[in-house]
Design brief:
Elements lengths: L6 H11 L2 H8 L12 H13 L17 E5 L10 H9 L3 E4 L10 H18 L3 E6 L1 H12 L4 E7 L12 H7 L20 E6 L17 E6 L10 H10 L6
Parallel strand pairs: 1-2, 1-3, 3-4, 4-5, 5-6
Length: 255
């Protein structure tokens, strides 16, 4: 029997292809037709929004003071803390202590990212002296809910912004997730993301979403509230109404 030219590499490839994370990622996308990807006209609108949508920050004056409450903000897929800067700056103006995740590019639930995110939570807890709030943008919202299921006593509030945590979903970025799937953690429990959280939650979605099916970005839960807004998926965190809503929802007296 012929032997592979590179036996070590061949066996490593086979092990990676057999990873449970591949099947889990495949199952994260709808195959029944119940959900469909947003139409291409909305996807085209995403590109235009990136170029044209530059709103001013909302007025923080009318909003109650955040009282130094610590907030950890997780970026979207394939992005960094750069895209959350405006939101964090606004929350800081509202009296919160808002921090980025400081883990570089968010490629999804790799073992390294999951472990580092939990380590990142620890200094936030120490600074707060108690539970902190977590905001997740798009894929970041899935990581936020996963973190909240793991460490419920340390999370005061979870806010997700256009995050398709109600799986399966339909998404134009699906091929990229399949490419990343071999590197994802086999311990990531995607099926629990939609389970009700034990702390207050906020889910923000938009029917204008050109990237993911908006229906998968919301779900009813006893301590959760869903809010519909307008705007493109890739720029919705710049929306002044979304920023003000987040600032109101995270008020320490309400969590």
């Amino acid at each position: 029997m012929a032997q592979p030219l590179f036996p070590g590499k061949a066996s490593g490839l086979m092990e990676r292809l057999a990873k449970p994370s591949l099947l889990r990622t495949f199952n994260a996308f709808d195959r029944t037709g119940r959900l469909t990807r947003p139409p291409y006209r909305r996807l085209a609108a995403e590109a235009w929004a990136q170029l044209s949508y530059r709103p001013s920050l909302p007025d923080a004056g009318p909003l109650p003071d955040g009282r130094d409450h610590v907030v950890l903000v997780i970026p979207a897929f394939a992005t960094t803390d750069t895209i959350t800067r405006a939101l964090r700056d606004f929350l800081t103006r509202c009296g919160y202590r808002a921090f980025g995740w400081e883990l570089g590019v968010n490629w999804g639930p790799t073992p390294g990212i999951l472990a580092s995110l939990r380590r990142r939570l620890d200094p936030c807890l120490e600074l707060e002296g108690g539970p902190v709030s977590v905001i997740g943008l798009s894929l970041g919202g899935l990581l936020a809910r996963d973190l909240a299921h793991d460490r419920p006593d340390e999370i005061a509030h979870v806010a997700t912004i256009v995050s398709p945590f109600r799986l399966p979903t339909a998404c134009h970025l699906e091929p990229f997730f399949h490419l990343c799937a071999p590197f994802y953690s086999d311990d990531f429990q995607a099926e629990r993301l939609v389970r009700p959280l034990t702390m207050p939650s906020t889910a923000i979605y938009s029917r204008d979403d050109g990237v993911v099916a908006w229906e998968s970005c919301r779900s009813e839960e006893p301590l959760g509230v869903c809010f519909e807004t307008t705007g493109a998926h890739s720029t919705i965190w710049r929306n002044p109404e979304v920023m003000a809503l987040i600032a109101r929802r995270l008020q320490p007296g309400d969590i």
